[in-house]
Known about the structure:
- There is one protein chain.
- The chain is an alpha+beta fold.
- The chain has 2 domains: 7-238 and 281-292, no CATH class; 336-391, Alpha-Beta Plaits (2-Layer Sandwich), CATH 3.30.70.
- Helix content is 46%, strand content 12%.
- It is built from 15 helices and 11 strands.
- The strands form 4 sheets. The protein has a 4-stranded mixed β-sheet. Strands 9-11-10 form a 3-stranded antiparallel β-sheet, with helices on one face. The protein has a two-stranded antiparallel ribbon with strand order 2-5.
- A hairpin with a 4-residue loop joins β10 (361-366) and β11.
- α1 (7-17) crosses α5.
- The longest helix has 26 residues, at 224-249.
- Mean pLDDT is 85; it is low at 401-407.
- This is Heavy-metal-associated domain-containing protein.
- InterPro entries: HMA_dom, HMA_dom_sf.
- It comes from Nocardia jiangsuensis.
Amino acid sequence: MEPRYDRAALARVLGSLAHPGLLAAAGPGREPFTAHYLAVPLTPEPGHHLTLSQRLYLERFMRPCPPELVTSATHRLTWVDEDGITNTGHFHADGPGPIVPIAARSAFLELWRALRTDAEFLGRVRALDEPARAVLAGTTTDQEPLEIVRVGVEAAARALTQHALLAHRTPYRDPADFARALRDSGIFGAVATRWFWELQASTHRRGMIPVAFDGTGERLRYTPDSVATLHAMKNATLAEARAVMHRARTAEGLGTEQAIARYHDELDLVSRQYALLGPAERPVCPATSWQRVDGSPLRLHGLVAERFVEAFAAAVRRIDAVPAPPADAEDGPDGLVTVPDMNCKHCVRTITAVLTSMDIAVHDIDLERKTVHAEFRSPRNRERAFEALRDSGYNPALLAPDRAPLA
């Protein structure tokens, strides 16, 4: 059956998969874990509170967001998680500290394990009929329900670690209390509905957040300026997507699928979801729509956020984050390197495009283990590739000596 673009139908499909027991198999986590991390201060530009990468991204892709609305992390950290995977993240020295990105990653791993072994969820996925699969293929980037929920959990982790950059401006000092406050205040839902596609992942990779909290009241909420700016940025991105799609269909004579393929290659920040919306349609995350499941109202996004906060609070209790001295790193086997902030298939496409544009052969990308197996011609060629990836918002690194080769 041909792919079918239908956001309302997609919301119903996701609702049918979000049974009340989804992710409930996640336990209290593994044994106590000591995370040894390396923290490096971020260096702002002279006379500016943002780094060069942050400022360039702001000016190129976040208009009309004013610089004063953006908060930067003070440090970038690197650590190896419980699955032996190298990760990178950011934190603010005045906030809860490095425990937030480290515990958020651990919570993600716990829920990802639960999801992959959830027999009821996997059974519902296998039982999807052809019309439902056509909707998934035509309306989503990730297409597979397992991948959609995985990306949703990882987006919740990003939302928490980004907003933790503002935690020192709230009453919450305990990381778990701050996470619960975000959940109870609806901030996870605000990210899914108010932020435009790609903004969260790109700003997260750069250690910045383009909102501020209103200091009045008990609940956490965005300032009116934050809401207005997010709305304006989303409108600008939506207008760009529609303009490019219109030009491709009319002046260039491309079909829809041809135009979508071209967007992924040439306009990396324009999503197919925005480009395919009708003239009067507003982009809404289908996972935030209420659906009736077995007679009860349920939202997939709310369920994921709830389970994530529970897993994060458990991870905070059992993880000890300890500074570590710098460790030597070396080339992985046959050009194997790690890109710790590679989160989704969109990242895979971007990284592949950057490397192949430099005539670097990409043999394999392992999204789960965040590794890239590429054919670098020399150490200098590899470093130039790293610089190009950093310009795209990623933080590639050489593998630590004890990392296992790609299976």
